[in-house]
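Duplicate of earlier report; ATP-dependent RNA helicase DbpA input re-posted below.
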Amino acid sequence: MSSTHFSNLELPKALLDNLETLGYHDMTPVQEQSLPIVLEGKDLIAQAKTGSGKTAAFSLGILSHLEVKRFRVQALVLCPTRELADQVAIEIRRLGRQVHNIKVLTLCGGTPVGPQIGSLEHGAHIIVGTPGRIEDHLKKGRLNLEELKLLVLDEADRMLEMGFQDALDTVVEHSPSQRQTLLFSATFPKQIETIANSIMKQAQRIQVEATHQHASIDQHFYKVEPEQRLETLRRLLLSYQPGSSIVFCNTKIQTQDVADELINMGFNALALHGDLEQRARDQTLVRFANKSASILVATDVAARGLDIDKLDAVFNFEIAHDTEVHVHRIGRTGRAGEKGLACTLFSDRDSYKMALLSDYLGHDIDPSPLPDDSVLRQKVMTAPMMTLQIDGGKRQKLRPGDILGALTGDQGIAGDEVGKIKVLANFAYVAVKRESFKKALACIEQGRMKGKKFRVRVIRG
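Output:
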C-alpha cells in the first residue's frame, strides 16, 4: 500500500471508511504534508493554492478532533467569499457523513440574518463563514466561541485584500487562547507573516507547489495600445471560440465596462465584481455554470474560490499586478488533463511586469500575431443555453425532478434539451437549449408543479 494512503493516518474508522467510499485513496501533497501536523494538534501555516486538496486537509482535521456529544461550537472556518464558504461546508458534510449528528452551519454576508439567528439558537459543532458576518454575530452576542478548539483561516491573503483585518482581530479576541490555528494562503505577503506571528504558537510551516501543470496551457501574449484592448479581445474571442472563458480585469469599474462592451458587440457576457448584490451574483454564477453565458468578466477577488469546472480559456485584459496572481489566473484552465488557453494583453507601460513574468517563466516573451480580422467578420459566438428563473424554490418544496418533469412531460421538450437545474431557497434556475426556450417557457407557465402554477421568466442581459 502506498505511503501516501489515507489509512496510514491516525483517523477515526468512520472517517477512513467514508474516504474509501468516496474514492479518496492517496493524499495530495498538501494533505500528506499538513495532515500529520493537524492531527497532532499543532498550529500550521500552509502555502497552497486552490485545487490542491487543502479543504479536505483541514476538514479531516476538524472532524477527527470533534466531540459530537458536546453540542458546542468547536471549529470555525473563515473564508473570503460566500461561494468558498458554501463549498467548504459541503466538503465537511461530505467527509463527515458517516459520523452521525454533526451540525455544520454557514454564516455569510449577503444572506438574511434572521434565519442565521434562529440556527445559532439551536447550536452547531462547526461554523463556516465570512469574516464580516461572523464579526457581526460575535459583537451582538449571538455566537459563542468559548469552547472553540480549532480556528481555520482559509485563503487568508484574500481576506486581507478584501479589508477583513479588523474582523479577523475580533474573531481572535473572542476565541480561547488555548486553541489550534490553521492558516492557508496561496501567497505569503508580509501582512500574513505579521498575523501568523501574533495569533499562532510555534506554527509549523509547509509550502506546496501547485500540482497544476502549466505545460497543458497554451499561453499567448499580445502587445496592444491601451485603446485597442477591447477590439483585440473581440478578435481573440471570435478566433478561438472558447465554450467558457474568464476575462480578468484589475478593477471593478473596468470589469463592468468590459462586460457591457462585449454585450454591445453581441457576446453573451456577464460581470462579476464586489459591487454586485448577492442575488445578482447568484444569477451570474448560475448562468455561467449552466452555459447560458460563455464569458465571465471578473476581478481576481470576485473570482477567488469559484468552483468552475472545465474552463476553456483565460483572457488577461490587463496583466496582473504581480506574477503569482498571473499564475493563479491562468491555472484555472487546462485542468484534469484538458488543454487550456491563456491570452494576455499588454502594452509598453507593462514592461516591468512583463520582465518579472519573463523571469518567472525562464524565457523571453515574444508577442503573438493577432488573428486576421477579415476572416472573423463572418463569425458569431453564441452561448448554447438560456436560463429560466422560476419563482419558487426549496421553501415551496420544489425539487429538480419536479422541474424536469414539467419541462419534459406531454408536449414538452426532450430531456437532452434541459441543462443544469439549480434550486435555491425561493428561486430555481433551469438551463434549456437556446432554440427550445420558448417551448420550455410555455411548459412552466401553463403547467403545474406540486399542484400549483409558478411564475417563470427568461433571464437576459
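The chain has three domains: 6-207, 214-376, 385-459.

Merging into the original ticket.
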